[in-house]
Structures are given as structure tokens and as C-alpha cells.
Amino acid sequence: MRSVGSWLDRNLFRLAVASLVVNVLIVVSGGVVRLTGSGLGCPTWPRCTEESFTPHGAYDIHAAIEFGNRLVTFLIAAVAVAMFVAAWRSGRTTIRRLALVLALGVPAQAVLGGITVLTDLNPWTVALHLMVSMAMISVAVVLVQRVREPDGAAVPAVPQSIGWLVRLLFVVGWVVLYLGTVVTGSGPHAGDADAPRNGLDPRAVSQLHVDFVFLLLGLTVAVVLVFRAVDVPPRSRDAANTLLLVLLGQGAIGFVQYFTGLPIVLVTLHLLGAALTAAAMTWLLLGTRQRVAVPEVETVVEDSSLTTTTTHP
């Protein structure tokens, strides 16, 4: 009979991918909560109501949506536990550490989500909640990559100057993601009719967000062109091309949603695109280096004969 442990060892990569998928899922489900005005559907935390952990009675669809988002947390927890067990049995220190970070992120996000509810969806805590989710997506991408790599030393896969260009792109990308949360905090989708806004001018912060988006897009195009001109691994080119496609899609959705009054469906797709942007940027950053497997050293023991010469008188 196959043991559970051995099954987990053989499916380490699948669990790493599952970790990435569920962390993207929680971003989308959290966005649906906000966009449908269900942020306070369950008005307290950790219970949904003062009397129960689940919505019941007079509570409407908003409570069901908010409670459904909380249930996704349990799915993430289940995957995180399975991933950590598999990582621990693998014996690989780096995999264990990454799995531990994702596992600890689940209760941390649950507590932070509770704070957003208890502060009546303060836009700054909501923004922090989303950015932590984006960071967990980034960690999950690193986990997927490390599972596929040998446990060797990391060496540059691209020239040093290009590596710094990609690092700059990565930093600008995170600024873009954060400014996106600021734009949302100034706009109409507060998560609840009575939730506060951050008080900033939506038009001004949207313009600032767009400015950094164009900077990010320009840097990405530059990386794509440079990768075509120099000798880099195929996965590095694939990562750059993927990020470019994601950003073009994001830009198209962003402009359409802005000029059509921020319809819920398009904003949801834009939020999904933000999660994919975080993943693609991380994949590109990882593409600037590769790991070289440490060769196994065979110890050869040769038998030697000790010849003793005896001299007879």
C-alpha cells in the first residue's frame, strides 16, 4: 500500500502549482467581495455574525459572498499544509522554507482580513491585505521554480547590466501594483455602501498609476528586445514575452474599464491581471539566473598491497 508521504513526494511540483493557483484564486474572490459590496456581509470576525460562524436567517447574498471568500482561506490552508508536509519529506531546505512562508501567510492573511472587517474596510488596510496576497503569489512562483531546479549554486543567466534592468522593472512593477490599490481606494468600489474612501482625487491617482504603467511597459519592451539580441536561456525569453502579453492585456482592460464607468466584470478581470502581473514579474526575475547542479563526488577506494621485504641473513 502506498504511503501518503511517498505520494506527496512524487507530487511536489503539482502541489507547488496548486499553491500558486489558490493564492491567485483568493485575490479574485476577495475582489468579487469588494466589487459586489459584500465586504461587510459578515459584519464581524472570526464569526460571520455575533451568534454564528455561518450566515443564516435574514442575511442576504452579500453575507454568502463574504462567507464564501472566507471558505477559500480554508482551501489555501489545506494546500499549504499538504505542500509543507511534502516539502519537509523532500529534505530540501529551500523548499521547506518557502513552503513555511506560504503556510504562515495563511493565518497572517486571515488576521489581516479580520482587521479590515473590524475597521469597516479602511481602504489602507484593504490595500495592505491585497499587497500581502500579491507577495504570496510571488513566493509561490519562486516555490514552483525551485521545485524544478537542482539544489546548486545560482549563477547569472544574463549579462549583469541586463540583470539590473530586470530588477528595476521588478521594483517599478510593484509600485504599479500598489498604486492600483490606491486608485481602487479612491474609487466607487469600497466593498460596502458605508465604507470610507482614502480621500484622494481618483483622476489624479489614476493618472499617476497610468504613468508608472507606461514606464513598466517600456521597461518590459526593452527587456524583450534585449533578450532577442543576446544569448539568454529560452525560459528567460518566455518569461519576458509572457509579462509583455499580460501587461498589454492589463492595459487594454484598464483603459476600457476607466472609460466605461468601472463595470464589475472588467474590474474583476483587471484584478486577475494584477495577480498574473505579480507572477509574471517574479518569473522574469528568476529568469536572470540559473542553478547549476552540484556534481556528485564519487569516492574511489583503491586497495593497496603492502609488500614487506624480508632480508634473510
Summarize the structure in words.
The protein is mainly alpha-helical and 313 residues long. Helices cover 69% and strands 3% of the residues. It contains nine helices and two strands; from the N terminus they run H-H-H-H-H-E-H-H-H-H-E. Strands 1-2 form a two-stranded antiparallel sheet. Helix 3 packs antiparallel against helix 4 and helix 8 packs antiparallel against helix 9. It is found in: Membrane. GO terms for molecular function: metal ion binding; oxidoreductase activity.
Let me know the average pLDDT: 82
Q: What is the strand tally?
A: 2
Query: Could you state the order of secondary-structure elements as H and E?
Result: HHHHHEHHHHE
Which outline best applies?
Answer: flat
Structural class: mainly alpha
Number of helices: 9
Strand content: under 5%
* Largest beta-sheet characterization: 2 strands, antiparallel
- The span between the termini is 72 Å
Indicate the percent of residues in helices: 55-70%
Q: Report the radius of gyration as a whole number of Å.
A: 25 Å
Instruction: Enumerate the spans where pLDDT stays under 50 for 5 or more consecutive residues.
Output: 1-5, 297-313
Order of strands across the biggest sheet?
Answer: 1-2
Q: Total domains, how many?
A: 2
Membrane topology: Multi-pass membrane protein
GO molecular function, one term: oxidoreductase activity
Subcellular location: Membrane
Organism: uncultured Nocardioidaceae bacterium
